[in-house]
Predict the 3D structure of the following.
Amino acid sequence: MTTVMDDVIARETQFVLQTYKRNPVTLVRGQGVRLFDADGREYYDLLSGIGVTALGHAHPALARVIAEQAQTLIHTSNLFYHPYQGQVAERLAKMSGMPRAFFCNSGTEAVEACLKFARRYWFTKGEPRAEFIALDESFHGRTFGSLSVTSDPHYRDPFEPLLPTVKFVTTNDPEALLAAVSTKTCAIIAESILGEGGIKPLTPAFAAAIKQACAQTGALHIADEIQCGLGRTGTAFYYQALGLQPDLVSVGKALGGGVPVGAALISQKVADAIKYGDHGTTYGGNLLACHAALCVLEELTDRGVMANVVKVGAHFEHKLRALAAKYSFVKAVRGQGLMWGLDLTRDATPVVGAGLERGVIVNRTADTVIRLLPPLIITEAETDEALGRLDAALGAVGAA
Ligand SMILES: Cc1ncc(COP(=O)(O)O)c(C=O)c1O
């Protein structure tokens, strides 16, 4: 007898370009932090669709806004005004200290926009600068510009040549950064917490070096907050915790709570260099995306979700550290708020499968790291249940 999953897999295998190695689970429904597969099995979601579903699944307010907007007006193009872009931009400005926003549809597009606006800034100043400084272990997306500042050869090599004007420096090495930056540098781009790279926060000393390098050379600072931003660490943006105020910020993932939307946040000095027609996108910031984003930002700031991250995040950390103490093959626990990585002395891949068997969804990154990005609405009781299942998965997999 073929199951729903057999059918889904057979059809995808035949018709969908095989770029994703999927887990053998067909998810059909969600509720809060839980997901359900086609056979009705329940999973605790400690990944949020890779940091996207900040409000969990089937959130009543977000579902209502999306349904109402779909019945009213979804899209008009950027040739016209609509009520929501300005409201989302205003909220983002208050949260970020960045006075202007440009809306797009994904994280990689937000990074592309930041790279282009940085180039435009120097072009407008009459001293074009081409060079970008990026970090080893970084990940900024799959389009050509974003890929050019992404370090992993596995992602880069098949698509060379990429932008030739990128220099990579060792993450969290202040001297390396200061040695690389010069008055030729257009911008330094860095994830405030490296996500794909294994949940590695920038250190205070490295943040200070970014500040110093920018002050000495005029180089702009682009903070990629696509994974760590929008309240995931308990502050609106992690650069704020590092004492930085970037010139450009890329935002995506959680912004629409699952509706695709991204944004580049822009300082006034860069915004002043941008002219009509410099950049654009057909969908970017349409009514559906922006109404959803407005709902997400309201929940984060006005309805206590960011406060929940601080409270439950402390509990989450406490529980994770207890797990690390229990298993000698957990060599480090890194992160903040509700963004965590358990770095193992072994390949983390089998933990993902063992987790699925026990009803918990986690992800492996940087080979040895179990990445945890739960919905920001998770409770302490749900944390206990989900991490209990992860505990069982770690116990089953063992040290080797
Ligand atoms: C830090 C960071 N930047 C950029 C991206 C690219 O975003 P997207 O996949 O939405 O294009 C990601 C995605 O994982 C990311 O984590």
